[in-house]
Amino acid sequence: MNRFVAWLPDHVDRRIRITAWVSFVLNVLIIATGGAVRLTASGLGCSDWPVCVPGSLTPTPEMGIHGVIEFGNRTISGPLLLAALLVVLFVWRLRRERKDLFRLALLVLVLVVVQALVGAFVVWQELAAALVGFHYTVSVVIVCIAAAFLVRMHAPAGRRELAVPRPFAILTHVTTLALAVTVVVGVMTTASGPHSGDDDVVRTGVDASLLAHVHSWPGYVLGALLLVLVVWAAVARLRPLKWLLVLTGVVLVQIAVGVFQARNGLPPLAVGVHMVLAALSAAAMTTVVLNLKAPAPVAADSPDPAEALTR
C-alpha cells in the first residue's frame, strides 16, 4: 500500500494533466451524445435502468437504432466515471497543499455519480421535461468545474489577489449572470420545443416560439457585454483578454447557430451544436472569471509554503 501511495503524483505531473483533460472532454462528449439521444427520438431506446431493457443489459434487436443510440450514450458514462476517479486518485497526495484541486476533483466525481442517478430517474419518469432539463444543466455545471480544474492545475498554490480593476471584475460577474440566464432560458425553451427525446413524450405546453424570443434577449445582452469587456481588456491589457476573445468567438457562433435554427424549423443537428456550444461557453466563462485573479506575490521574508508544510 505504501508503495502505491508513493507512486501517486506529489506534484501536478503529466498523469494529472492527461486525466483532467480526458475528464473534461468526456463530459463535453456526453452532452453531445445525450443531445443525439434526444434529437433522434431515442430517449426511450433503452426503457429501463441500469439495464437497457428488462432482462438485458444491452439493447435487443427489437429496440432498433434507437436502442443503439441510447446505449451508446450510456456507455460513455463508464469511462467518464473512471476518469473522474483517476483525477481524484492522482491528486490524493496533494490534497493538503492543493486543496483547490482536490476539492474540484472530488466535486466532479460526486456530480458524475449524481448525474447517473438523475439519468435513471429520467428514464423511469419517461423523459419528464423538467428532469431532462435538470440533467443537461448538471452536465453544464460539471463541464464548468472540470474547466476550473484545468485552469487551477496550471497555477501555483497559495493566495490569489485581484489582477484587474474592480469595476472590470464586477462587469465580468454581471456578464456571467447574463450567460447563466441565457442557458437556463435556453433549457426551458428546449423543454417546450419539439425535440422531446421520444415521439410520445408530452412537452411543457409553453409556447416554444415565445420562449425562443425570450431566450434571445439575454443572449444579445451577453454579446454586448462581452464586446465591452474585450475592448476594455484590450485597451488596458488586462489578464483575461485571451480567454475573453475565445469566449466572445464561441458566443458569436452560438448566436449565429441560434438564429439559424430558429429560422429553419429547429433542425436537429443545429440544436445539438447549440447545446454543446452552450456548455463550452460556460466553460470559457469560468476560465475568464478565474483569470480575474493572479497569484499574490510572496514577500521576501515569507517562509516557503512547501517548507512550512514540513515543519
UniProtKB/TrEMBL annotation:
One of its GO terms (molecular function) is oxidoreductase activity. Pfam families: COX15-CtaA. The keyword Thylakoid does not apply. Its main location: membrane. It is a multi-pass membrane protein. The chain crosses the membrane at residues 21-41, 76-92, 104-124, 130-151, 163-188, 217-236, 243-263, 269-292. Keywords: Cell membrane, Disulfide bond, Heme biosynthesis, Iron, Membrane, Metal-binding, Oxidoreductase, Transmembrane, Transmembrane helix. This is Protein required for cytochrome oxidase assembly. It comes from Agromyces rhizosphaerae. The lineage of its organism: Bacteria, Bacillati, Actinomycetota, Actinomycetes, Micrococcales.
